[in-house]
């Protein structure tokens, strides 16, 4: 294969965060080890957020220690504020994902501040960030907001330009938080953002599958030139601050599609499938995806 993409596994953060029953830390650690063994080199292992708001992620610092022992793994953690970024760096996080929303209503619901305030906070974080820390921006509700509806491309592009100007060498991930993005919208914003900000270090896409469009929108982003994709084993997920949003696009579905297209992912499907099946069976999990059942039924 002459073409390749990078899959970022987000089940241990985005997939586990809406699950009510506590998942023991060692169980989470075992999933991270198994996902890494399946060839996933970037895993979002958790988030430094309020344990009151999202109690499932209160053991992220412990999981960082687990990830540090796995050779070749790049663990990343999500942070919503500069203060939480300091906590993550103090705990040894090598890769931060700063999240803010394109829509005012969702940003206030998610982090209790305006988009402008989050952008200012991001700038303060950049000033204090030590050398050697990798960085990504997760731009939530880039396509659709659960409160405001469909996002127009122009104002989202304006926000992307402002963020990129603060530090152009970061990775920017366009996130379909609600799963309501259509492939044409994903292709338009992805292509427009890359054309408007060619200095950006890398572009990524984060799909949810609420309306069964996750794989189609992932393909649309790939056609537009994106080469980094978030996915969750077992199709786990759902945003606590986006009512009605269900799981992420399933890692096994994304891997199957790209490999079938002749695009290398570096993921061993035979090793991934049992991990995905176990993740989907977790008590309280909201699972999705189609490849598990199809391959289990011998559909090849």
UniProtKB/TrEMBL annotation:
Pfam families: HMGL-like
Gene3D superfamilies xrefs: Aldolase class I
UniProt domain Pyruvate carboxyltransferase: residue ranges: 5-273
Keywords associated with the record: Lyase, Metal-binding
NCBIfam families: PRK05692.1 (NF004283)
Alphabetized PANTHER family for the sequence: HYDROXYMETHYLGLUTARYL-COA LYASE
Annotated family: Belongs to the HMG-CoA lyase family.
Name the record gives this protein: Hydroxymethylglutaryl-CoA lyase
